[in-house]
Design brief:
The protein is mainly beta. About 10% of the residues lie in helices and about 50% in strands. The strands form four sheets. Strands 16-17-18-22-1-21 form a six-stranded mixed beta sheet, with no helix packed on it. A six-stranded antiparallel β-barrel has the order 2-11-14-13-12-15. Strands 3-10-8-5 form a four-stranded antiparallel beta sheet, with no helix packed on it. A hairpin with a 7-residue loop joins strand 17 and strand 18.
Length: about 325
């Protein structure tokens, strides 16, 4: 039997073909390995959320009711004549200061065929003339006021409080008063009187507020806006209401903490809280937070417990 040997050229081509297949297979395996590493890096990539934060503060919060009313002189008395007749002379004018016993007007009680001495009406109290209904020549009786005098008992504001707020009213509640005539100025007072009945037509109760006016800026007849402080708490933790999230029956905030696995990053921790008074966008936190804790105030919509965050802005804390 004669053995035939392979052509060296064919053998060389066969070896080259086998080496090419091996090289291609190695490159493919390497490529697959690289793709696996990339996927691993993608899986390990953690999303970071941009947020704004604020520090919780310990301070005061107050609940109030805003009403409006007219300013009146605290003690107002009308001056009357002792006799019926015709007014012959007026001794005072609106705005003038009088003392008790000063003459107000002269009234002539004479009748046809009868002449009587004039009757002089005097001021019953000391104060300022705020109204003069009497005019020279008009006929008056003992029931017709000649002048109205505002005494020195200060000023008061008369309010009509709706029935739904009556339960929150009480004597000596503090009040803050503002008027358009003095923008930016705040005057202080308190509730001095409360009507024992409710008006059947309007379903309101009249309340009177004494107001301090040391600078004599307020005048009877002015329109005033009154803030009645119905509840005031001190030493409580308060935060912006936008920081509190209500979700699935829970009320909570996100507190900033350091990532334990990577300290150079911040994460958020979900903290259940118990809100209290809510007024003017500020809420009292009865439990769940301490003063000077950093919480998320904006950007918390997509957050979850443990989410990594990037603090874009630290908002100025609330005033105490």
């Amino acid at each position: 039997m004669i053995k035939k040997s392979l052509n060296p050229f064919v053998l060389l081509c066969l070896c080259a073909f086998v080496c090419g297949i091996l090289y291609t297979s190695c490159e493919r395996i390497k490529e697959l390995l690289n793709i696996g590493e990339d996927k691993k890096e993608i899986v390990q990539d953690v999303p970071v959320f941009a947020v704004n934060t604020i520090l919780t503060v310990e301070g005061q919060i107050q609940d109030y009711i805003t009403l409006s009313g007219d300013i009146y002189a605290g003690s107002t008395v009308d001056a009357f004549s002792d006799a019926a007749g015709r007014v012959t002379e007026l001794y005072v004018s609106v705005g003038r200061r009088v003392n008790r016993g000063d003459p107000i007007a002269a009234v002539d009680p004479s009748r046809p065929g009868m002449t009587f001495r004039q009757s002089i009406a005097t001021a019953p109290i000391s104060g300022t003339i705020t109204m003069m209904p009497a005019q020279v020549g008009m006929m008056v009786t003992q029931a017709v006021p000649l002048a109205r005098i505002a005494g020195g008992g200060g000023l008061e504001i008369r309010l009509n409080v709706a029935e739904r707020f009556i339960s929150r009213m009480a004597l000596n509640l503090p009040c803050e008063v503002t008027v358009d005539a003095w923008p930016g100025d705040v005057f202080f007072g308190s509730i001095s009187e409360m009507s024992p009945t409710v008006d059947l037509a309007s379903r309101t109760m009249e309340v009177r507020v004494n107001v301090n006016d040391t600078g004599a800026k307020l005048k009877p007849g002015m329109f005033a806006k009154i803030r009645i402080i119905t509840e005031r708490k001190s030493g409580i933790v308060k935060v912006p209401a936008s920081a509190v999230i209500n979700r699935f029956g829970e009320q909570f905030v996100y507190v900033i903490a350091q990532d334990p696995e990577n300290p150079e990053f911040n994460i958020v921790q979900k903290r259940i809280v118990s809100p209290g008074i809510l007024i003017d966008g500020i809420v009292e936190i009865q439990s769940g937070l301490e003063p000077n804790e950093e919480i998320v105030v904006r950007g918390q919509t997509l957050l979850d417990d443990g989410s990594r965050v990037n603090i874009i802005e630290r908002v100025t804390p609330l005033a105490n």
